[in-house]
Protein backbone atom coordinates (compact mmCIF):
# COMPACT_ATOMS: atom_id res chain seq x y z
CA UNK A 1 0.00 0.00 0.00
CA UNK A 2 1.35 3.40 -0.99
CA UNK A 3 0.48 6.33 1.27
CA UNK A 4 0.23 10.01 0.47
CA UNK A 5 0.55 12.33 3.47
CA UNK A 6 -0.97 15.82 3.59
CA UNK A 7 0.08 18.01 6.52
CA UNK A 8 0.38 21.68 7.43
CA UNK A 9 2.70 21.79 10.43
CA UNK A 10 5.45 19.92 12.22
CA UNK A 11 4.51 16.48 10.89
CA UNK A 12 4.64 14.59 14.20
CA UNK A 13 1.83 12.25 13.09
CA UNK A 14 3.62 11.72 9.78
CA UNK A 15 6.70 10.78 11.81
CA UNK A 16 4.68 8.21 13.78
CA UNK A 17 3.49 6.71 10.48
CA UNK A 18 7.01 6.81 9.07
CA UNK A 19 8.36 5.02 12.17
CA UNK A 20 5.69 2.31 11.73
CA UNK A 21 6.64 1.88 8.07
CA UNK A 22 10.34 1.70 9.01
CA UNK A 23 9.87 -0.96 11.70
CA UNK A 24 7.56 -3.02 9.49
CA UNK A 25 4.46 -2.64 11.68
CA UNK A 26 2.65 -0.67 8.93
CA UNK A 27 2.54 -2.68 5.67
CA UNK A 28 3.01 0.37 3.46
CA UNK A 29 5.42 2.91 2.03
CA UNK A 30 5.05 6.68 2.01
CA UNK A 31 5.08 7.69 -1.65
CA UNK A 32 4.61 11.47 -1.34
CA UNK A 33 4.31 14.17 1.34
CA UNK A 34 2.42 17.34 0.40
CA UNK A 35 1.85 20.61 2.26
CA UNK A 36 0.56 24.10 1.55
CA UNK A 37 3.03 25.49 4.13
CA UNK A 38 6.56 25.98 2.71
CA UNK A 39 7.84 26.45 6.30
CA UNK A 40 6.18 23.29 7.67
CA UNK A 41 8.68 21.05 9.45
CA UNK A 42 6.85 18.11 7.85
CA UNK A 43 8.92 18.87 4.71
CA UNK A 44 12.18 18.51 6.63
CA UNK A 45 11.05 15.22 8.19
CA UNK A 46 10.19 13.89 4.72
CA UNK A 47 13.48 15.05 3.20
CA UNK A 48 15.47 13.40 6.01
CA UNK A 49 13.64 10.14 5.25
CA UNK A 50 14.23 10.47 1.50
CA UNK A 51 10.50 10.83 0.74
CA UNK A 52 9.45 12.98 -2.26
CA UNK A 53 7.66 16.21 -1.31
CA UNK A 54 5.47 18.71 -3.14
CA UNK A 55 3.93 22.06 -2.30
CA UNK A 56 0.18 22.63 -2.67
CA UNK A 57 -0.64 25.98 -4.29
CA UNK A 58 -3.69 27.33 -2.45
CA UNK A 59 -3.66 30.55 -4.50
CA UNK A 60 -2.91 32.76 -1.49
CA UNK A 61 -5.99 31.68 0.46
CA UNK A 62 -5.21 31.53 4.19
CA UNK A 63 -7.64 28.73 5.05
CA UNK A 64 -9.55 27.68 1.93
CA UNK A 65 -8.54 24.77 -0.30
CA UNK A 66 -9.64 25.91 -3.79
CA UNK A 67 -11.08 23.30 -6.13
CA UNK A 68 -8.27 23.74 -8.68
CA UNK A 69 -5.69 23.17 -5.93
CA UNK A 70 -7.53 20.04 -4.83
CA UNK A 71 -7.59 18.73 -8.40
CA UNK A 72 -3.84 19.40 -8.76
CA UNK A 73 -3.18 17.68 -5.42
CA UNK A 74 -5.22 14.66 -6.48
CA UNK A 75 -3.29 14.48 -9.77
CA UNK A 76 0.08 14.60 -7.97
CA UNK A 77 -0.99 11.85 -5.56
CA UNK A 78 -2.26 9.69 -8.43
CA UNK A 79 0.97 10.24 -10.36
CA UNK A 80 2.91 9.05 -7.29
CA UNK A 81 0.83 5.85 -7.27
CA UNK A 82 -0.84 6.64 -3.94
CA UNK A 83 -3.51 4.19 -2.72
CA UNK A 84 -4.54 5.87 0.55
CA UNK A 85 -4.26 9.53 1.59
CA UNK A 86 -3.54 10.33 5.26
CA UNK A 87 -4.30 13.82 6.54
CA UNK A 88 -1.80 14.49 9.33
CA UNK A 89 -2.47 17.91 10.80
CA UNK A 90 -3.74 19.18 7.45
CA UNK A 91 -5.69 22.33 8.21
CA UNK A 92 -7.88 22.60 5.12
CA UNK A 93 -11.24 21.05 4.32
CA UNK A 94 -11.07 18.33 1.65
CA UNK A 95 -13.87 18.41 -0.92
CA UNK A 96 -15.04 16.86 -4.17
CA UNK A 97 -11.93 16.71 -6.44
CA UNK A 98 -9.87 14.82 -3.85
CA UNK A 99 -12.79 12.80 -2.48
CA UNK A 100 -13.72 11.63 -5.98
CA UNK A 101 -10.11 10.72 -6.76
CA UNK A 102 -9.76 8.66 -3.55
CA UNK A 103 -13.25 7.45 -2.55
CA UNK A 104 -13.23 5.94 0.98
CA UNK A 105 -9.43 6.16 0.92
CA UNK A 106 -8.75 9.43 2.73
CA UNK A 107 -8.11 9.24 6.48
CA UNK A 108 -7.93 12.03 9.05
CA UNK A 109 -6.84 12.24 12.67
CA UNK A 110 -8.84 14.57 14.93
CA UNK A 111 -7.96 15.49 18.55
CA UNK A 112 -11.32 14.59 20.12
CA UNK A 113 -13.69 11.66 20.52
CA UNK A 114 -15.91 12.44 17.56
CA UNK A 115 -18.71 13.33 17.17
CA UNK A 116 -17.81 15.51 20.20
CA UNK A 117 -15.81 18.68 19.53
CA UNK A 118 -15.35 18.81 15.75
CA UNK A 119 -13.41 21.69 14.23
CA UNK A 120 -10.44 23.66 15.51
CA UNK A 121 -8.74 23.40 18.92
CA UNK A 122 -10.83 20.45 20.06
CA UNK A 123 -8.72 20.06 23.22
CA UNK A 124 -9.64 23.62 24.25
CA UNK A 125 -13.30 22.89 23.49
CA UNK A 126 -13.09 19.79 25.74
CA UNK A 127 -11.58 21.77 28.63
CA UNK A 128 -14.17 24.54 28.31
CA UNK A 129 -16.97 21.92 28.29
CA UNK A 130 -15.66 20.43 31.54
CA UNK A 131 -15.60 16.83 30.30
CA UNK A 132 -13.64 14.21 32.27
CA UNK A 133 -12.46 12.36 29.18
CA UNK A 134 -11.52 13.26 25.63
CA UNK A 135 -9.10 11.74 23.13
CA UNK A 136 -8.59 11.36 19.41
CA UNK A 137 -10.29 9.78 16.42
CA UNK A 138 -9.09 8.43 13.09
CA UNK A 139 -11.93 8.60 10.58
CA UNK A 140 -12.64 8.44 6.89
CA UNK A 141 -13.02 11.87 5.27
CA UNK A 142 -16.43 12.49 3.72
CA UNK A 143 -16.53 16.19 2.87
CA UNK A 144 -18.00 17.42 6.16
CA UNK A 145 -16.11 18.92 9.09
CA UNK A 146 -14.85 15.81 10.95
CA UNK A 147 -18.01 13.85 10.11
CA UNK A 148 -16.79 10.69 8.32
CA UNK A 149 -17.11 7.12 9.62
CA UNK A 150 -14.87 6.35 12.60
CA UNK A 151 -12.06 3.81 12.19
CA UNK A 152 -10.45 3.98 15.64
CA UNK A 153 -10.50 6.11 18.80
CA UNK A 154 -8.09 6.60 21.70
CA UNK A 155 -9.26 7.92 25.07
CA UNK A 156 -7.37 10.46 27.18
CA UNK A 157 -8.42 11.54 30.70
CA UNK A 158 -8.80 15.24 31.43
CA UNK A 159 -6.77 15.80 34.59
CA UNK A 160 -7.23 18.27 37.42
CA UNK A 161 -5.22 21.37 36.55
CA UNK A 162 -4.89 20.54 32.86
CA UNK A 163 -4.13 23.48 30.58
CA UNK A 164 -4.98 23.47 26.88
CA UNK A 165 -1.28 22.82 26.21
CA UNK A 166 -0.88 19.90 28.64
CA UNK A 167 -4.08 18.23 27.43
CA UNK A 168 -3.13 18.73 23.79
CA UNK A 169 0.27 17.13 24.45
CA UNK A 170 -1.31 13.98 25.91
CA UNK A 171 -3.84 13.77 23.07
CA UNK A 172 -0.96 14.03 20.59
CA UNK A 173 0.76 11.05 22.27
CA UNK A 174 -2.46 9.05 21.83
CA UNK A 175 -2.68 10.16 18.18
CA UNK A 176 0.81 8.79 17.54
CA UNK A 177 -0.35 5.42 18.90
CA UNK A 178 -3.69 5.07 17.12
CA UNK A 179 -2.96 6.52 13.66
CA UNK A 180 -0.52 3.72 12.74
CA UNK A 181 -2.99 1.14 14.09
CA UNK A 182 -5.83 2.66 12.03
CA UNK A 183 -3.68 2.47 8.90
CA UNK A 184 -3.04 -1.21 9.64
CA UNK A 185 -6.82 -1.76 9.91
CA UNK A 186 -7.38 -0.04 6.55
CA UNK A 187 -4.53 -2.00 4.95
CA UNK A 188 -6.12 -5.28 6.09
CA UNK A 189 -9.49 -4.22 4.64
CA UNK A 190 -7.97 -3.26 1.32
CA UNK A 191 -6.05 -6.52 1.13
CA UNK A 192 -9.22 -8.64 1.34
CA UNK A 193 -9.80 -10.21 -2.11
CA UNK A 194 -13.14 -9.65 -3.75
CA UNK A 195 -15.66 -12.53 -3.54
CA UNK A 196 -15.06 -15.21 -6.17
CA UNK A 197 -11.35 -14.41 -6.56
UniProtKB/TrEMBL annotation:
Amino-acid positions noted as binding (6R)-10-formyltetrahydrofolate in the UniProt annotation, renumbered to this chain: 64, 91-94, 108
Positions bearing the site annotation: Raises pKa of active site His: 146
Residues binding N(1)-(5-phospho-beta-D-ribosyl)glycinamide, per UniProt: 11-13
Gene3D superfamilies to which the protein is assigned, alphabetical: Formyl transferase, N-terminal domain (3.40.50.170)
Keyword entries, A-Z: Purine biosynthesis, Transferase
Recorded superkingdom: Bacteria
GO cellular component: cytosol
Pathway(s) served: Purine metabolism; IMP biosynthesis via de novo pathway; N(2)-formyl-N(1)-(5-phospho-D-ribosyl)glycinamide from N(1)-(5-phospho-D-ribosyl)glycinamide (10-formyl THF route): step 1/1
Catalytic activity: N(1)-(5-phospho-beta-D-ribosyl)glycinamide + (6R)-10-formyltetrahydrofolate = N(2)-formyl-N(1)-(5-phospho-beta-D-ribosyl)glycinamide + (6S)-5,6,7,8-tetrahydrofolate + H(+)
Main function: Catalyzes the transfer of a formyl group from 10-formyltetrahydrofolate to 5-phospho-ribosyl-glycinamide (GAR), producing 5-phospho-ribosyl-N-formylglycinamide (FGAR) and tetrahydrofolate.
Protein name: Phosphoribosylglycinamide formyltransferase
